[in-house]
Structures are given as C-alpha cells and as structure tokens.
Amino acid sequence: MFTNILVALDGSKVSQRALAEAVDLARLMHATLHATHVMEAVTSARSSLDQMDNSREMYQLLEKEGNDVLEGAKKYCADKGISVIPHLKQGNAGTEIISLAEQENCDLIVVASHGKSGFDRLFLGSVSSFVVKNNKGTTLVVRGQ
Predict the structure, then answer these.
(1) Which of 4, 78, 117, 120 could be joined to 106 by an S-S link, Cβ 3.0–4.6 Å?
(2) What is the pTM of this model?
(3) In terms of Cα–Cα distance, which of 41, 130, 35 is closest to 77?
(4) Among residues 98, 107, 78, which one has the least CA distance to residue 87?
C-alpha cells in the first residue's frame, strides 16, 4: 500500500492520464498526493543585455505554464474530492522528480510514458526512463492511447 504518491506533470495529454491514475490510487489507498511540474533550465551562450531580457521573459513564460499546469491539476483533484500538494521545480526534470520524491518520502512516482514531444511511440521517454532507472521506490509509467 502506498502512503505518499508523486505525479509528474508537463501539460501533455498523457500526463493528464497519469494524473487521473494517481488520483484514483490516492483515493483507493488514502494516500497523500503530490504533483510536480519541472521547468527545464533556460540557458544561453550569449550574455548581452538583450539575451538576459529574453531569458527573463522565457523564464516567466515557463513559470506561468508550470503554474497553469499545477492549477489545472488542483482543479481536477478538487473535482474528484482529492487534495493535492503542488510543487513547481526548476532544473533537470528527472533529477528534480527523484529529489522531490525522496524529500517528501514518496513511495510511488507516477509518470507519463512520454511528454509533450510525443516522440516515443516506440521508446520510453527520457524523463520517464530516468525516473524508472533512478527511483529507489516504485514507479508507475502511464502510457498514451
């Protein structure tokens, strides 16, 4: 039985399915549910003021997107009668997911098989693959349709 569940969200349709699975499991097991969205780091080879402004704007856009994803998750969970603890992180998605799961003592991580790229009809996505390989606990990989 799981007591702390972490679901990783990127705003894709497959991550919405992962959220639905995590909500069902949290309800069934009376577990605490955590949701995270990781903003990948924005870096630039150039250091001009224009680039700094563009990086700042890009960061603000990514932060807004992450907050929107987490707000959507909170609304979905509320509609299902489940509370969720949101976590907006920045950095390498796989590393941040594993780190948060350890920090919050999550015994299950739920991830989508692939994210927004939609690339992996044949292969497991890089983030989900990293989480499966590096999670010390249980990982549930939710596939797309």
Answers:
(1) 4
(2) 0.87
(3) 35
(4) 98
Tokens of 74: 């909170």
Query: What is the average per-residue pLDDT within 18-36?
Result: 98
Residue that wins the pLDDT comparison between 49 and 141? 141
d(CA 38, CA 116): 13
Q: Which residue has the higher pLDDT, 118 or 77?
A: 77
Helices 13-29 and 49-79: crossing angle in degrees, nearest 10, is 40
4-142 maps to CATH 3.40.50.2300: no
What is the CA angle 57-59-63, rounded to 5? 120
Say how far apart CA 129 and CA 131 lie, in whole Å: 5
Check: CB of residue 41 under 8 Å from CB of residue 90.
Answer: yes
pLDDT at 39 over 50: yes
Neighbours of 36 (CB within 10 A): 27
What are the CA-CA distances from residue 137 to residues 6, 95, 101, 106, 118 (Å)? 11, 15, 9, 8, 26
**Could you give phi then psi for residue 136, rounded to 5 degrees?**
-80, -20
